[in-house]
Write a structure and sequence with these properties.
About 50% of the residues lie in helices and about 15% in strands. The chain is α+β, with helices and mostly antiparallel strands. Strands 5-6-4-7 form a 4-stranded antiparallel β-sheet, covered by helices on one side. The chain has a 3-stranded antiparallel β-sheet with strand order 1-2-3. A hairpin with a 2-residue loop joins strand 8 and strand 9. The longest helix has about 30 residues. Keywords: Coiled coil.
Length: about 260
Amino acid sequence: MRKKCVLCNKTGECIQCTYCEMNICLTCADISTFEANLLKKQKNNLKYECTSCCEKEASKSKSSDGVSQLAEVVKNLQQQIQLLQQSIESMKNNRENDPSDKSSYDMDTIINEMSERNKREKNIIIYDVPECNSDNQVEISNYDKSKFKDIVVQLKVKPIDPRKIIRLGKPDQSNPQKPRPLLVTLSTKGEAIAMLKNAREKHLGIKHDLTPFQRDKLKDLQSKLQEKMGKGDNQWKIKYVRGTPQLIKINSEPNLTR
């Protein structure tokens, strides 16, 4: 819908935050037209939360009771899962009744992909963080937490208490000095956004926790970027738009109307 954006005051295609009901244009919301249309079609299953509400959620999480908040999160997740299961089951039934109809399969795939992205939206992956030499799991855990705190200070973001920190994969026997990436689960999506934004500005190795679909797309974009650079066309770069990598021309705004 065409509304005036509360952030840039420009009139254009906007999306409404589920929580504060503010209208935000797609550029300020950092989402594509495809994602906006999907949110509108699946508004009962998928919700859009603006950055301001994310930050408020982070503030509330520090002052509210942990147990009651966790119970509320679990309840909301159960409701979301139930709605997704109902939608998926309905589409499967439609596909069985009409085998020639492939749209239900496509929507099934899209919903599963969006659900997977929702699970990962509070995750970040940090690269090149040295590993602890100890075999003691408590010492290793404390070491990784300490390294994460150092990174938070370096990024100059508000203090963050991560929910989980783990190392991805097994040690590389051929290169023992190469540290495994850190997968960090934060309390809110807003915390993840803040760290990713500041990491880009400081050129630190902190990335989104991409789904398999997003990783495949990134590899394809990297291949296309290398092909363009090989032909002398250096006017392109890969940019993340709401967590999804896209190939965008440098000094040119992405066309979100396509």
